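Entry type: protein chain
Record version: 2
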Amino acid sequence: MKVVEKRDYIHSHLHLADARTIDQFYEVLRKEERLKATLSSRAKKSERDIQNGHVHSREELEKNLDNIGLE
């Protein structure tokens, strides 16, 4: 079944769903929305870091990880 067909089915049967089903569906959609917002925010921050020259090579990162807790 294609996404459009699933959306149509959900839309046409939503009025039949009980409160528990609606609550579950609502929570899934909210979590997805928050995840998208979080990922978008991280991507924007990463882009700013790159533009500002705040980047490290893989070797630098590995060296920093190796030195954690050794001081």
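Comment: The chain has a mean pLDDT of 92.
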